[in-house]
């Protein structure tokens, strides 16, 4: 599950700092989230839907009275967890629940291990490095330091939702202190293999202390957690900067300002509205690898926005687009592969190497192809500015693609669907729950098959009526299933189940 940034205003923190030099850098820090009222959802809901949301909010408020609902993950920006938490916690606070967000710290060695676990849970070898006693000692040492600091804040009876492999080992210490611990795994593999089993064996000692475990798909649940598993699918915040309405001319102006498309004559200001309602202007540029000029504003763009992760297969997207142009050299379209600045995501040590592999694959292409492919590292200093850029890019796109080899759940797919953009995505993992083939988008059955990918993209570029129909149906799919309204109701049910299990 990946997207580029968290879309709420976050305090600026030195996440990229490493802990080699001082243990103090292993102290977790809090990301402060302002409350948002649930009233903003009311105009888009039926009377029954609004009544149900209010009822779930009241149940959660009463059940959590005098207690805090903590979320702990490993980065405040970059990736799907950091993308979802700001909105969900803000609405939780707006509903009267004391929700808080803590970000743990780690060393480079720790994040290398957890990235290896990330790949393994997807069924992939990653770099093939070991997950033995030495790695377990490193993992547990880092988490022991973080747990000591968290235990100063977390009280008996509080609820702690731990996210993904980075935090799983915190469960025993927090449970021993009297907290109700839930672990949420945002990734998984539909058909488990030896790598998946290796990851679960590594994580098992920590997870034994979790009362419940939350998964995106039932297929991701391992036997050892089957009696404690809950399925909750992710969602997007439709009111976040990344998803707020944006006029086409303003989207084009933002992309023109950062250098991704050519500037239109007399463009409007490249502006957006922050989460606190204050108008703001995109002021930074993107770092772009390209040959020649930016595409004209009216050129259809094929766009993939993701972290620089080999499982997102950006090299495969590039080569699939190259095949498309080889087969249809007169097709008027250009490709944008966009991701975060490669040094900005603290818990992803592979970003820079993956980006370099994409640049190397781009350099292998003939000149005419390199002139129509643009590799963009988007600025991350201001998360809301970055969200506005991603919003503009997705809304400007002719086709949004997500050619993942593995995917827990495609938040970027959901974002594009909300914007009624036609989507081509791999039929893997949670994407299969988001998109039904030829209903809300086109699915590529074999994510490694470049001809199938190229044919799907060509079809959407050449059939505007099909693209419009899929986009309309995709927007309705998100409205019905993948917004915070459903997600918050799921959380209310989770809290009831947690209290029943805690007895």
TrEMBL record:
Going by the UniProt record, its keywords in alphabetical order are: Carbohydrate metabolism, Glucose metabolism, Glycosyltransferase, Transferase
Transferase among keywords: yes
Give the molecular function GO annotations: glycosyltransferase activity
Membrane spanning residue stretches? none
Q: Which InterPro entries match?
A: Glyco_trans_1, Trehalose_Metab_GTase, TreT_GT1
Every Trehalose synthase N-terminal domain range? 71-221
Taxonomic superkingdom: Bacteria
BP GO terms, sorted: glucose metabolic process
Instruction: Say if the entry is tagged with keyword Nucleotide-binding.
Output: no
Name all Glycosyl transferase family domain ranges. 298-476
According to its UniProt record, which protein family does this protein belong to?
Belongs to the glycosyltransferase group 1 family. Glycosyltransferase 4 subfamily.
Q: How does it assemble?
A: Homodimer.
- Protein name as catalogued: Trehalose synthase
Record the organism.
Corallococcus coralloides (strain ATCC 25202 / DSM 2259 / NBRC 100086 / M2) (Myxococcus coralloides)
The taxonomy runs:
Bacteria, Pseudomonadati, Myxococcota, Myxococcia, Myxococcales
Q: Which gene encodes it?
A: treT
């Amino acid at each position: 599950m990946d997207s580029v940034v968290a879309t709420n205003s976050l305090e600026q923190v030195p996440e990229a700092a490493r802990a080699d030099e001082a243990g103090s850098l292993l102290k977790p820090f809090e990301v402060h989230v302002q409350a948002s009222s649930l009233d903003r959802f009311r105009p888009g809901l039926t009377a029954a839907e609004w009544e149900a949301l209010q009822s779930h909010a009241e149940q959660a408020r009463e059940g959590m009275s005098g207690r805090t609902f903590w979320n702990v993950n490993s980065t405040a920006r970059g990736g799907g967890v950091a993308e979802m938490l700001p909105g969900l916690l803000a609405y939780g606070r707006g509903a009267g629940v004391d929700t808080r967000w803590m970000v743990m710290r780690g060393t480079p060695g720790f994040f290398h291990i957890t990235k290896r676990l990330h790949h393994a849970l997807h069924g992939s070898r990653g770099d093939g490095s070991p997950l033995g006693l030495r790695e377990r000692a490193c993992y547990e040492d880092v988490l022991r330091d973080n747990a000591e600091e968290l235990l100063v804040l977390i009280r008996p009876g509080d609820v702690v939702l731990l996210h993904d492999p980075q935090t799983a080992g915190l469960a025993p210490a927090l449970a021993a202190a009297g907290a109700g611990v839930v672990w949420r795994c945002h990734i998984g593999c539909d058909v488990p293999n030896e790598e998946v089993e290796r990851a679960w064996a590594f994580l098992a000692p920590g997870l034994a202390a979790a009362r419940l475990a939350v998964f995106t798909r039932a297929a991701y649940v391992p036997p050892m957690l089957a009696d404690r598993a809950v399925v909750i699918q992710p969602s997007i915040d439709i009111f976040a900067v990344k998803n707020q309405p944006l006029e086409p001319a303003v989207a084009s102006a933002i992309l023109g300002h950062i250098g991704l498309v050519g500037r239109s004559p007399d463009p409007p200001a490249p502006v957006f509205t922050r989460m606190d309602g204050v108008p703001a202007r995109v002021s930074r540029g993107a770092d772009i690898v390209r040959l020649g000029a930016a595409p004209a504003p009216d050129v259809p763009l094929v766009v993939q926005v993701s972290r620089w992760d080999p499982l997102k297969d950006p090299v495969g997207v590039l080569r699939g687009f190259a095949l498309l142009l080889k087969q249809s050299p007169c097709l008027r379209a250009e490709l944008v592969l966009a991701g975060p600045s490669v040094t900005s995501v603290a818990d992803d040590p592979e970003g820079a190497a993956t980006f370099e592999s994409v640049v190397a694959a781009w350099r292998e292409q003939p000149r005419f192809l390199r002139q129509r492919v643009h590799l963009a590292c988007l600025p991350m200093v201001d998360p809301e500015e970055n969200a506005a850029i991603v919003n503009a890019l997705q809304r400007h796109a002719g086709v949004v693609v997500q050619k993942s080899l593995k995917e827990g759940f495609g938040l970027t797919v959901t974002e594009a669907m909300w914007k009624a953009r036609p989507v081509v995505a791999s039929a893997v993992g949670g994407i299969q729950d988001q998109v039904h083939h030829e209903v809300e988008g086109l699915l590529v059955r074999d994510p490694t098959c470049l001809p199938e990918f190229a044919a799907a993209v060509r079809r959407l570029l050449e059939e505007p009526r099909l693209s419009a129909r899929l986009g309309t149906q995709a927007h309705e799919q998100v409205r019905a299933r993948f917004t915070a309204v459903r997600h918050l109701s799921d959380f209310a049910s989770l809290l009831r189940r947690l209290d029943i299990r805690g007895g």
